[in-house]
Each structure stands twice: as C-alpha cells, then as structure tokens.
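Re: beginner question about structure tokens

> Can someone show what the tokenized structure looks like for a real chain? I only ever see the sequence side.

Sure, here's an example I had lying around. Input first:
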Amino acid sequence: MGEGDSDRIEMVAAYTPDRLRDMVRTAYSHLRSRGERHPRLEETLPPQPSGEADRLEAAALAALAELAVAPGGVTVERAIESIEARSEMKGKAKALESDTCEEYREALAAFRTLKVAEQEHRDHTMLRVLLELYGERYARAKRERSALDFEDLELVARDLLRRDEGLREAYSSRFEHVLVDEFQDTNRLQNQLLSLLSRDNLFRVGDENQSIYRFRNADVSVFREHWQEAQAAGRAESITVNFRSRGEVLDAIDLAFERVWGESFEQLREAPGSREPAAPVQPCVDLLVVDRARDAWKEMTEQGDPFGEALHGAPPWRAAEARLLAKRIDELTRGGPWSYGDVVMLFRATTAMGLFERALDERGIPVHVVGGRGYWGQQQVADLRHWLAALANPLDGLALYSVLASPLGGLSLDAAALIALHARRSRWAPWRMVREPTDELAGALPERDRQRLRAFVERFEAERRIVGQVSLETLIDRAVTRTGYDRHLLALPGGTRRMANVRKLMRMARHYEADEGRDLRGFIDAVAERDVIQAREGEAPLEAESLDAVRMMTVHRAKGLEFPVVCLADLGKDGREDDGQLRISDDGSIGLRLANLGGGAVDSTKLAQIKAEGKRAAEEEERRIFYVAATRAEKHLVLSGATDLAKRPDPAELTEPMRWIWRGFCAGLPSEGATGIETDTREGREVAVRWTLCTPATVDEVLPAEDRAPAAPQHEEEPGYEQPLLELGLPPAPRALAVSRLSYSGLEAYRRCGYRFFLERTLKLSRVDAPPGGEPARPGLSALLRGTVVHGLLEDLDFGQPVVPSDGEIAAAIELHGVEALAADVEDVRAMLERVASSGLLGRVA
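And the corresponding structure tokens:
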C-alpha cells in the first residue's frame, strides 16, 4: 500500500463515506450554481514549515528542566506529563506562569497551526480529486441515459448562446421585452443567461426583503447589484402599495421592520379602503409570548405532564405555546368571525408541527397539513405500508414487528418485545416464532396477547394466500376493514382526515396496478422511492381543496399565497446554522472542518471566517423569512413563540426570533401581567397589539386547567360500528382494462380485435407474424403507415406559405417505407395535405 493509499483510507475513515458524499455534492452544486459547468476546486500550495517543530522541542525541554526543580504538586506533575506528550498544559500554579512555560504554550500553538494547515492542504487536495471524479462519472452516467439535470439546462443553454453569436442574436431578437419575476431569488448563472437573451430590454420585478431561497443557491446580492445599477441609470421604480392586508396589519408590520432594518426598510403603503369595514376582531395583531427561562416550568413538570399526556416529551414552554395558540385559534373561529379554513399556521421548519397539530386535534379543530412530511409521516400510512411489506415477505422483521405492535396486529409492545427476545434466543426468524410460538413464549405472554396472536396468524395467513388473486387496492381495503382499523382511526381526533390518508394510499395502489400490473413487491418499492423523492408531499385532502380545516405549512410553501388569518408559530425555536463539513464563501473560497481518526474535528482558519459570514447572512435571511410570513395576513396576524421573559436577552444571530419580534411589534411589552393591549403610534395613527404572557405565574389565568389538557372530543361508538362513515368493505368495480391512457390508434386497434388488444397492450406480449397460407395482405398503405407518411410530409411544410408536395414527392415518401406507392394512396395523402394547407388553423399556428 502506497502513502497516497493510506492517506485516502484514513480520510474515508475519519470523515465517513456519507459525510464525504455530502461534501462533494455540496461543492458540486454550489459551484455549478455560480456558472461552472465542470466544477473544480482551486489548487492549493502546501504550507512551508519555518522551524515550528524545532521551536516546540526546544521550548518543551526548557519547560521540563524548569518544572523539574519547581515546588511539587499535582498540577505541576500533570503539566510535566502534558509537556512530555507535547500536549496542552492545564491547571493553575505559580510555576506554570513563567516565561518558559508561556514560550512552550506559544510554540505548541504555532506547531498545531502548522499541522492543521498541512491536514487542510492534504484533505483539500484529495477532495479536489474526488470532485473531479464525481463530475466525470456523473456526466458519463447522464450521457448514457441521454439525461440532463436542472443545472445542465441552464449551463448548456448559456454555453450555446455564448459560443454562437448567430444563435444568440436569433433568440434575443425574438423578444420585445424580457420579463423576470421574483428576481431576488435568482443566482449568478441565471443572471448570465438573462444577459445573453436581453438587449437592454430586461424588465425585472423583485423584492429584496422576500429573498428566502439561499439554501437553493439563490444570491440576493445579484438583485442588489441590479437595483443599484438601475437606480444610477434612473430606471428603478418602487411599488409599495399592498392590496392584500388591512391597514392596521400593515402599520404593525411597517413599525416592526422599521425597528429591525432601520432606514433601509421601504415601508408598505395601504390601499384605499383597506380599513373598511371595521375589523371584526380588534386589535388585528396578537402577540403570544411564553416564558422560556431555564427551569421556569420545573416545579409544574415535576408533578407530571402539566399540558397533557398528548404533549408528553415536548419542552414545557413549547407545549404551553401549542395549547395557548390552539386556544386562541378556537376563540377566533368557533367563538369568532372566521371559519377553520380561513386560518393558516406557518412554521419556519416542520420539526414541531406535529405537536401543534395534536393540540388542535384535542380541541376538536380539524387540521390539514400541507407539505412537510405530512403524508408519509402519518402513522396510518406507515402501518399499512408495513402490513403490505410483511405480506410480501413475512421474513421482513421490521415490517412484521411494526404490524404486530400496531392496531392491525393489536399486540402490546411488551408482547412484541417478548417475541423478538425469544426469536433471538432460539435463532428463529420472527415469522416462525409468531406462527409456531414455543411453549416458553406462550407461557410468558398474557392471555389477551396469546388470543390476539392466534387471531393475527389466522388472518394474516389467509391474506397471504390471496395476495395474487385480488387487487392491491382490495388488499389495503381488507386490512382496514377486517382488522377494525377503520373504526380505530375514526375514533381518534381528526379521524376523517386519517381515513382520507388511507383512501389516498388505496388510490395510489389502484393507479400503480393500472400502469404496472398486480405486483405487490413492485408497489412497495415504488412507494418507498416516492417517499424518498417526494419527502414533502402533503396529506390527502378530504374531499376538495377548499376543505374547512386549519392549514399548517412552512413559510416557504406559503410564499405567494394569502390568508385571512395567519398564525406564525414556534417563534421560540432557535435558528439553525449550517453545520456541514465543507463551506464555500461568496468569493469561492473553501473552508473545511478537519476530521481525524480519533473522532475529533477542528475548523480550519478559513472555515471559521466563512462560518462567521454565513451566520450573519443566515440571520438576515431568517428575518426576511418572517417578513414574508407576516405579509401573508389579510385581516388578522397572530405571533406566537417563547423567550426568557425574566432576562429578556438581546437579539443575537440565530437565536429564537421572539427576541426581536416582541421588540418590533410590542416594544412596550410589560414585565408583569397576563394580557393587555399595547398601543404605539406611527404617522399619527394608533398601532395596537394584544399581548399575552404565559408564565408559571400567569398560566392559570391565560391557560386554565381545562385548556392545558382539554378532554378529547366524544365519539359515538355503537352507531359508528354499525354504520361506518366509509364503506371500504365494498370495493369499486374493477376496470375493464388495465390501461391508463389510450390514443386514437389504440381505440381503433381495440375496435378491430379486443382480444388482440388485450394480449398486446395489457399483457405486453410481442406481436408475431401471421402463419403462412393465410389471407394475403391488402396492397397499399395501412392506416398506421398512412398517418406516418402524412406526419412526415407535414414536418417539411412551411406553415407561413404552404405548398402541397407533388405526386412524385408523395410517392417517394411512401416508397421510403418499403411499400408500393399506388395511385389511390397518393391521391388520398394529397387530399389530406390539401385540407391541412387550406385550413384556418394553419394560419393561426404560423
């Protein structure tokens, strides 16, 4: 093994393959967004030693000699051991404060700096090679598949326009104006494309304050540069009238962001009549703040779950916020002027979305999750996927145990754990232990679990026997109805929505079978792939898009939308800093977090600089994100979050946004009290905000016991069992043909011979030649070939000045297909071409 091989192996072991993959992909994506078609990292020079090792050795010997005669003590003895190991001295002692010891510390720091620089150069060089290999192999894989990725569409188009002046002129001359919307979310590569297509006729629309796609390589500096150039040329115009929001909401937003951004903020102006009629709920802005001080809720949590078992495990301040916000939504809807469908809850991230969903569910408020991992993260979807996976392969232990512990199996968690334990001891597959439980296992299981296990085995084996005989949709239907799973779901809060998710999975199964056939394993794999690719697919709508339910979504998904009531939730959540191993600055510099085999990591000098710059940029974008969120509100805005209400810490980069939000919207927020209205002024108008403080001292007032742990809505049991809402036990009539789409040619083929159509289109059997001695083939053009000939001739037809081809040209086109050109066929084709050439449609297409 050569030295280079050992370095590469050490690098893979230190960083791990997953992290190396992420580092390479990060560099590749970022550099391509900057316009590099074949990304390369710059070559670096190795650091040059300047006596650091000799200095450290001399300083160590001097320090050891000095400490050898110094007064004894544990601290000095440990310092001597550290120096002998050439590591950092720790502890405080008079003997360690000498100039000799200080020289050792400085020499050690210089030596370590050199070693970090050497490792950075080594790792950078190997990453440079990895990036080149990745680019070459990725490009080859795309060529083999004749594929392009999204950046290719931009890069290839740019290079074509750059190389070919005639092509560039041809395209740019086609456009009277080049109009670009959302210009603040473009990057430098896209800007290069625009400059090649425009001829001093570029019209851009954007808002710097709404640039929130930095994670997709959007570069707000591109917008700023264009804005400054346009201003200097007198070609910039600000459009600040907001036609969406009430004037009271706009005043609060303007006041808040003037305090945040200062003079650089360009205020929004309200449209005429935006305060008419009078607001049904006043003030139009709510501020809900929960105390997030350390140990603030300790006394309450020591007595159990103060905010209900459903929110067990959540930080108490977040659980309190979820309950408080659910209560306020209840007041605005059930007890107020708005319907559930008028309300949206916006989140910076999906992390805590489920917590707020449960708080609404327990108050009987319907919820619809848009995006996030709303659909694939739902328990009922996961349960049914595991059921299907176990049917396809009962040796899939994860799927089998998941089914056993779910309502589909009905076993307790203890029973599932006992089965796993005995299977491991006996070295049996889990399915064998389930089907043939040992006497020891049977004796360990409670009677209730033994009965349920026997019932499960009988039911499950019966389902496995019919897997190939019924449709995939029916398999899911039988699982839901025969186990009582439908009744279980409907008895839960939001039961109708949960059943809608089941119906969505059944529709997926039906569509998959129509396109791909009755393949259970294939459907499971397709669903798993869809889960990975479409990780942010929303939950199934109940009946229509306009369902009457509170919607939950991320701020990014809400961009461009508007809602009567907007609730910004979880404003006590800290911002997230990019913790990747590799970072690239705006000027293209590379910073690495250097890993070693011991498991530690150290930031390179360049990475520390890039992280500081990135943290500032991330905080700026965080504030823009909340600006976008607040401006989605038409009539009412609710701001909900947590911060330390005792210390009231100053705003800082990537800390909880509530620090600056309460200062912006309600600068006079009192330190005592439970609720009230704070009034400020702006341009002579009153700006009112209703504030609510939830602390251990005020919780009984703002969140009484019945609101901290509300009773679940009551459901009628017997009628629900006798007359279920959904008749899933009655599967729809099977489709006549498992074909998802048909052309006119396909319909004609079905008319001629339905059985042949079934063999060729449904069973996918290949065509065979007719046996010899049969009926002779009809001379001339077939219908399919006639269409091919006509289409080919139309491709050469000038739609602006159509000239029908001559008989000789038509005959030649027919003979190209190896068929004799009969006079009747030539005449027929010419008549079809003449009808096209004389039609009014042709003129419009031209």
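Each token stands for a local structural state, so reading them left to right follows the chain. The first strand starts at residue 178 and ends at 180.
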